[in-house]
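[stage:ingest] chain + small molecule (zinc ion)
[stage:ingest] validated
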Amino acid sequence: MRKVMDCREYPSDIGCTLTITGEEDEVMVAAVQHAVAVHGEEDTQEFRDGLRGMLKPDVPQHA
Ligand SMILES: [Zn+2]
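[stage:predict] done
[stage:export] tokens:
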């Protein structure tokens, strides 16, 4: 099952709308790099734990 990280649900003052989808480990790598580069976050274990908790199952949308 793929996971989704949606920046719109992440507290941010830059209005980021990025979504990252993939296997959980892939999303984590990309999301940490993105958060450090764009959101100025620090790559810490605590941050990674919080980030992992934000991931949601990639449920296909049937709009
Ligand atoms: Zn973002």
